[in-house]
Automatic annotation (TrEMBL):
GO aspect biological process, one term: methylation
Domain Methyltransferase type stretches: 47-125
Keywords: Methyltransferase, Transferase
One Gene Ontology molecular-function label: S-adenosylmethionine-dependent methyltransferase activity
UniProt keyword annotation of Metal-binding present: no
Cited Pfam families: Methyltransf_11
SUPFAM superfamilies associated with the record: S-adenosyl-L-methionine-dependent methyltransferases (SSF53335)
Name of this protein: Methyltransferase family protein
Length: 262
């Protein structure tokens, strides 16, 4: 596995830096949360791997959270359980400890995808639920026109749907999750109809891909998007998105039932 960052982050992104103010822009969106809640079924005990600040943790279940970043653990609200300092690739739990397990916007941070998913399957009796992005669909959003370098970085970091499915095994379903216009979870595509918002430095800081490209990429993005918003070019091309209720982008929910249920 890769070495941890100074705040304990074990993935490729340093959340000691980019995690500052993360929850100002990344809140669990109710529409997306409903997809996850339904996929967890009637599970009473749930493991959340790479739990971060607690987005999408169901408050009506008994949740155990795992998060290696100290800065992200510190941002968890008081009503959520304290997260355990551990990584996906080495979960400190006996076999079949939980009814279900989940990971949201986390698998692309792991140093060993297969090991992490195998660990989730090992400690889980029922469904393993993964919220991630399909790298093959990231170019569907207008962001690809303005920041192709950032999108290319995202596409390289996100594992393919096939890689996740094959590693989990069993009976796997892949659901496309439509993104609502007023999505309050500020990943890149969440701003598909609100381009002004992603001009804010904090919005980009809360998306780890921006930390993997040169600062000049972000500067050029702000300059070009700001110009096109000011002179009407963006709206001429994409203005219809400002009132489009949902965007079918790259967001996916992978749900894997154990082999015995397939």
């Amino acid at each position: 596995m890769s070495e941890r960052h100074t705040d304990g982050s074990a993935g490729d992104a340093n959340y000691g830096l980019i995690g500052l103010g993360y929850t100002n822009y990344r809140q669990p969106d109710p529409h997306i949360a409903d997809f996850i809640r339904r996929s967890l079924g009637d599970a009473r005990t749930v493991l959340n791997v790479g739990a971060g600040a607690g987005s999408y943790e169901p408050v009506d279940r008994e949740v155990t959270a795992v998060e290696p970043s100290a800065s992200m653990r510190a941002q968890r609200p008081a009503h959520l359980p304290v997260a355990i300092d551990a990584v996906a690739e080495k979960l400190p739990f006996p076999d079949q400890s939980f009814d279900a397990s989940m990971a949201t916007f986390s698998v692309h941070q792991w140093s060993d995808l297969e090991a992490g998913l195998a660990e989730m399957r090992r400690v889980t009796r029922g469904p393993v639920v993964i919220l991630s992005c399909d790298p093959d669909a990231l170019s569907l959003c207008w962001l690809n026109e303005y920041a192709p370098q950032m999108i290319a970085v995202e596409a390289r970091r996100y594992p393919s749907m096939g890689a996740i499915s094959n590693a989990l095994g069993g009976q796997v379903s892949i659901l496309s999750v439509p993104i609502p216009l007023q999505c309050i979870d500020g990943f890149g595509e969440a701003y598909y109809g609100r381009p002004e918002r992603i001009l804010e430095p904090g919005a980009r800081l809360a998306n780890s891909a921006w930390s993997f490209v040169d600062a000049s990429v972000g500067e050029r993005f702000v300059a070009e998007l700001g110009r096109d918003l000011a002179d009407g070019t963006w709206d001429a091309r994409y203005g219809f998105l400002r009132t489009q209720p949902f965007f079918e982008g790259s967001l996916r929910l992978i749900v894997a039932q154990p082999e015995s249920q397939s």
